[in-house]
Amino acid sequence: MADSIKIDFQAPAAAEGGDIVVFVGEALKPSPAVAKLLGQKAVDLIAKVAAVENFKGKARSALTIVAPSALSADRLVVVGIGGEKDRSELDWAQLGGLVAGKVNGKTATVWVDLPGVTATPENVADMALGVKLRRYSFDRYKTKKDDSKKDGTGRFVFAVPDPAAAKKAFKAVDGVAGGVAVARDLVNEPPNVLGPKEFAARAEALSKLGVEVEILDEKAMQKLGMRALLGVGQGSSRGSRVVIMRWNGGKAGAQPIAFVGKGVVFDSGGISIKPGAGMEDMKGDMAGAACVVGLMHALASRKARANVIGAIGLVENMPDGNAQRPGDIVTTMSGQTIEIVNTDAEGRLVLADVLWYVQNRFKPKFMIDLATLTGAILVALAQEYAGLFSNNDELAQRIAEAGRATGERVWRMPLGPEFDKMIESKFADMKNSGGRYGGSITAAALLQKFVNGVPWAHLDIAGTAMGSPQTEINKGWSSGWGVRLLDRLVRDHYEG
């Protein structure tokens, strides 16, 4: 995250230097209040340049004009918000990201008075969030920085009627921006730098924010009987870890909510080794765990009024002489047995033990797990939606609503006894892969066997969290997917 970015809020007034950002609809006219601040010459100039450049004010379009001498600014950046339908579906974070991508002066003054739209303090905060997310970059391993990709603007001033209210709303949102950056950093790190031990240390740093952090090493996991998780990591020279994070922001003794993340820091596939092409991307197979750490950062930063458990299983899946084999049978912490038919179906083994541990120890109100679990989910949903599986309709509906609100969308997939049948084993209670058909569903069906009836949802984020689609708020390889979604879920339903 570009920590040098300074976000300010002030009452509307003439800007001094830098860029001025104004918004227009299809009529190409700024709001009356903005028009008055600009002056008639600037308003006429917008119309004239728009005609020459064929700028129609469509949603997510922009026009840059050298400011007329009457304005004490360098440039006018005119951002289109489209027609009535576009304005009713306005994504404020994406709009902020668009603005951040169009300005390049030392200062940008954004006059948040949109024609036909009333911006709440929360809308303004989301726009500022979009600015911060757009300005994220990960170039710590480049010895020569690409100056052409550097954004010059270091200060964004949002001109709004109630600066104090906007500033208050942004204070909470800023913690979410930090959480997204934490998740992005973790996913982007190379696997030689970020093994299970190092990942656990990154999570332990949350203690500075008041999060209680407990790390289980292999000895502790052996004692607990987490043989499914340990089996995945036994081919690696780097020991596995489980990290438990606790944020106690709710009433003392109140039942917690829980988030569980798959953290395979590198996935070679093990003995069932993956093809070499693209294997470097498997450093991102811990994006679920990264999201959970980022979420705990966000919740602690804004002092969420909830009791929250974050749990992550950290392993490396490698093919050495001690590696797990196809045909092995492991006994999970729950006592259930799993036949390994494919060592590349490893994430569900990690989650099986962590889910059981969390429900057994903490008795949560619900559990949500996140995992880059299956390539099959990309076949079904591309990179547009995460797959949602759940045993609880209310929880699933709330997650879907939070997804629509944040743009981190989910699509509910089925579960049922016919899918359980597909993972039946001749030699154990179940097998870890049901084959090619319904691969995402059979993986979720296995996970369900370890939630012990607790309300639960599984998010398969293989398509959304790494190699992520490029948007106005994400220009990198990792989007930090899920932090905003789950923060919104907690904020809307589980605080108080």
Automatic annotation (TrEMBL):
GO BP, sorted A to Z: proteolysis
Cofactor(s) this protein requires: Mn(2+)
First-level EC class: hydrolase
InterPro entries (UniProt xref): Leucine_aapep/pepB, Macro_dom-like, Peptidase_M17_C, Peptidase_M17_leu_NH2_pept, Peptidase_M17_N
Ranges that cross the membrane: none
Residues noted as binding Mn(2+) 1 in the record, renumbered to the chain: 267, 344, 346
Keywords on record: Aminopeptidase, Cytoplasm, Hydrolase, Manganese, Metal-binding, Protease
Keyword Protease listed: yes
PROSITE patterns (UniProt xref): CYTOSOL_AP
Main localisation: cytoplasm
Active-site annotation: 274, 348
Molecular-function annotations in GO: manganese ion binding; metalloaminopeptidase activity
GO cellular component: cytoplasm
Domain Cytosol aminopeptidase: 342-349
Cofactor note: Binds 2 manganese ions per subunit.
Reaction(s) this enzyme catalyzes, per UniProt: Release of an N-terminal amino acid, Xaa-|-Yaa-, in which Xaa is preferably Leu, but may be other amino acids including Pro although not Arg or Lys, and Yaa may be Pro. Amino acid amides and methyl esters are also readily hydrolyzed, but rates on arylamides are exceedingly low; Release of an N-terminal amino acid, preferentially leucine, but not glutamic or aspartic acids
The enzyme's E.C. designation: 3.4.11.1, 3.4.11.10
Assigned protein family: Belongs to the peptidase M17 family.
Functional summary from the UniProt entry: Presumably involved in the processing and regular turnover of intracellular proteins. Catalyzes the removal of unsubstituted N-terminal amino acids from various peptides.
Protein name: Probable cytosol aminopeptidase
Designated gene of the protein: pepA
